[in-house]
Each structure stands twice: as C-alpha cells, then as structure tokens.
Amino acid sequence: MTMISDSLQAVQANIQCAKMNANRQDAVKLLAVSKAQGAERLREAYVAGQTAFGENYVQEAIVKQSQLGDCDIEWHFIGPIQSNKTQLIAQHFSWVQSVDRLKIAQRLSHARGDSLPPLNICIQVNTSNEASKSGIDSQALIELATAIKALPHLTLRGVMAIPAPTKDTARQHEQFTVVRMAFNALQERGFDVDTLSIGMSDDYVAAIAEGATIVRIGSAIFGARTPIKKNEE
Ligand SMILES: *Cc1c(COP(=O)(O)O)cnc(C)c1O
After folding, report:
1. Is residue 227 part of a domain?
2. Between 56 and which of 35, 64, 165, 188 could a Cys-Cys bridge form, CB atoms 3.0 to 4.6 Å apart?
3. Which residues lie below 8 Å from residue 49, measured CB to CB, with a gap of 6+?
4. Is residue 30 part of a domain?
5. Which residues line ligand 1 (CB under 6 A)?
6. For 128-160, what is each residue's pLDDT tens digit?
7. What is the band of 99 on the pLDDT scale with cuts at 50, 70, 90?
8. What is the pTM of this model?
9. pLDDT per position as a tens digit, 49-59
10. What is the DSSP code (8-state) at residue 154?
11. CATH at residue 202
C-alpha cells in the first residue's frame, strides 16, 4: 500500500506541473479531503506537511478534530448542509465551501458570532443547471453573494463546484469553464473574491488549467474510501 506521504508528494508534483503548463504563478491550495479516514491517517498527512483538511460529515469531523487537537489544522466543511447542523459547522470550521441558500448563510453567520474571526464562505454553484443537482445557477449566484456580503460574521471568498464525474477531459474543461465564468462574474460585479474551488482526484489537472485556486483531493491521497454508512448524520 502506498504511504500517504508518497501520495501527497505525487499530488503536489502534479499540481506544480499543471500550474507550469497553464503558465500560472499564483498559489493553488491542496485541500486533503479526509471523509471516511480515521484520525491517525489525517495525522500521517499532517506530519508530512498537509495542513488543510476537508470534511463532509459534521459529527465525524468533530470526533477527528478532538483527536487532532494538538495539530494546527485549517478545517473546511464541504458537504451538504442541513440547517440543524449550522451551529456546529460555524463553531468547528474556518471555511464552509458548500453554501447554496440564504437561510443557511444567515444561520451560519448568526452561529459564528463575535468570538471567532469571520467564517470563510464559498457559494456552491451548479455546472449543469439541473434542478436535481445541489448548487445554484449563475443568476441566483449574484443575489446570494450580495446577501452574504451583508452578513456580519461571514467573508465571501468565492465559488465551489462538484461537476458530474467524467474521464472525458474535454467535458471536464467544459464544466469547469462554467464555474470559472461564474467566479469571473462575481469579480466583474465588484465582489472581492479570490477562491475558485474546483478539481478532485480525477480532474484536478483540468481544474488547474481552468484557474482552480483550491483543489479538493481525497482518494489520490488516502486511497479508495469504504462507503460511509447512511445513518452517519
Ligand atoms: C469526496 C469529495 C472530494 C474528493 O473526492 P476524490 O475523488 O476522492 O478526490 C472533493 N470534494 C467534495 C465535495 C467531496 O465530497
């Protein structure tokens, strides 16, 4: 079995290579997606130099956070958000990348309060305009961004998307272009955003070519996941 430190190094090398091919000098942050991984595996990645971790399930994340309390980790919440979980999410993470409706943003801001620095927020956008998919379309994006900007305990950082998985690189580029255009639309409207969170294990090279500033990578670092039980939350 490949060591986590070796996988991390390989992913970092691929990121550098993709940046060079895209003529990019700016930073691409590697977010290690650690859902379904035990705390000891996160610690292994941390010791190898990885400091930003993404989690999808609140209860699972909180257990690991307490086990890793001695580590200086930046925690990102990237999973679907139920409104009864906003209090815990606002208190246990410094980033929330999966905000797709105002009610959730309002609850997060309220729960974050004054005692912590503002919560970094990405709006999750939909790349296919299918109603069934999570994430909002580009029209609703400007409206939600405007509302988030007015909330006192949130800082709008940019957009996140989870396009339909495909091995077809032309299709990967097409989907990421939709997200990049949504991000550019925010900038053109005067929003001070710096984060384009796109790219997972199978498509991060294409995402970096399309301007990703955060790539969210799980299986390429930790190996294949065993499915999470449905009653997890
Ligand atoms: C699981 C997950 C990832 C990582 O997926 P891999 O294919 O394992 O790299 C990235 N983003 C989100 C939102 C996820 O749920």
Report:
1. no
2. 35
3. 8
4. yes
5. 33, 35, 56, 78, 162, 200-202, 216-220
6. 755 556 678 877 999 999 999 999 999 999 999
7. very high
8. 0.94
9. 999 999 999 99
10. E
11. 3.20.20.10
Determine the average pLDDT of the residues in 46-71: 98
Q: What is the DSSP letter of 163?
A: P
The boundaries of the domain holding residue 204 are: 3-222
- Ligand 1 centre from 13 Cα, in Å? 19
- Nearest residue (CA) to ligand 1, atom 6: 218
What 3-state DSSP class applies to 216?
A: strand
Q: How many domains does the chain have?
A: 1
**Strand bridging mode 95-99 / 52-55:** unpaired
Q: Give residue 21 CA to ligand 1 midpoint distance, Å.
A: 24
Q: Which of 216, 225, 228, 233 to mutate to test the pocket of ligand 1 (most atoms within 8 A of CB)?
A: 216
Closest ligand 1 atom to 216 CA: 10
Share of the chain above pLDDT 70, in %: 94
The yes-or-no verdict on residue 102 having pLDDT over 90 is yes
Ligand 1 atom with the shortest distance to the CA of 98 = 13
Three-class SS state of 28: coil
Confidence of residue 233 (pLDDT cuts 50, 70, 90): very low
Whether 21 is covered by a domain: the verdict is: yes
Has residue 160 been placed in a domain? yes
**Tokens 């065993």 -> residue:** 226
Ligand 1 atom closest to 222 (CA): 8
Calculate how far, in angstroms, residue 199's C-alpha sits from the geometric centre of ligand 1: 9
